[in-house]
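User: I'm putting together notes for a lab meeting next week and I want to include a structural view of one of the chains we've been expressing. I don't have a solved structure, so I'd like a prediction I can at least talk through. The sequence is below, exactly as it appears in our construct file.
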Amino acid sequence: MTIRSPLRRLALATAALALAVPGLAFAQAKLKVAAVYTVPFEQQWVGRLHKALKAAEARGEIEYKASENVANADYERVMREYATAGNQLIVGEAFAVESAARKVAKDFPKTMFLLGSSGKPVAPNFSVFDNYIQEPAYLTGMIAGAMTKSNKIGMVGGFPIPEVNRLMNAFMAGAKETNPKVEFSVAFINSWFDPPKAKEAAFAMIDKGADVMYAERFGVSDAAKEKKVLAIGNVIDTQKQYPDTVVASALWNMEPSIDRAIKLVKEGKFTAEDYGPYSTMKHKGSELAPLGTFEKKVPADTVAKVKAKEADIRAGKFTVKVDDDQPKSTAK
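Assistant: Thanks for the context. Below is the predicted structure for the 332-residue chain, given as structure tokens.
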């Protein structure tokens, strides 16, 4: 007769239960998560994904590995390597490598994928997300409209794709609410990370009278600082780096999306879905950054209007229109 210790019996029972209940095995150990990024960690968009995943790693929930600056031509290979290595969730941005990313997901049906994409989710394992932060972008536009003295705002973006266009359009609509006379200069540098090029584009607009710059890309706030004009941040808050330049920022918080994906993979309940809504203010996926150094510099009546509009957004009384069309310059 064999006598098993209580610990031995518990271990056997847990193993049996893990086999019987889908997803329980994942819950017993740290989830293996990998990320593939085409730009450096410091780039604002990818930086928000990296921050949320590092937070989950710090909590002890996941084992996290990531590759930055992956060329488009190498993206599929790196994804396959991570999937083959047994990572249970792969995160990244698929905008320029859409077909390749979806092909990898199809070849690894037991690996879960959460990728930034303008396309649709595909069953069983390909979920998409997007930066639906048009609500705080609208609020920053309200502030910009009130802060410009020349009634000219410059806007420098990466590529004219929906993810960029919707934020610019929301910003422009917000600026028009507080200042119907405002005019916009819009340019795209056709790069996700080229600060010198963005800086030069900003200089050109400032030289033509823009006294507030919408910094969709790195480099714009540097130009604004040098020329002593104002800037509005996007996705991240850079006011600490530019305390006399960056008035306000629309912040993107990826934690609600990342935490949801991790939880569902652990529970064996991850399915193909659109995570876009989890970037809205309702789900704490976005917010207006504190005014900080500009708290006393933004007119009190503007602050009141912005707070009232924010309350209406959160209460569902006001909806910021999602306009993915390419924004056009209106400056003469």
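A couple of points you could mention at the meeting. Residues 76 and 101 are 6 Å apart (CA to CA). The chain has eleven helices and eleven strands.

User: Perfect, that's what I needed.
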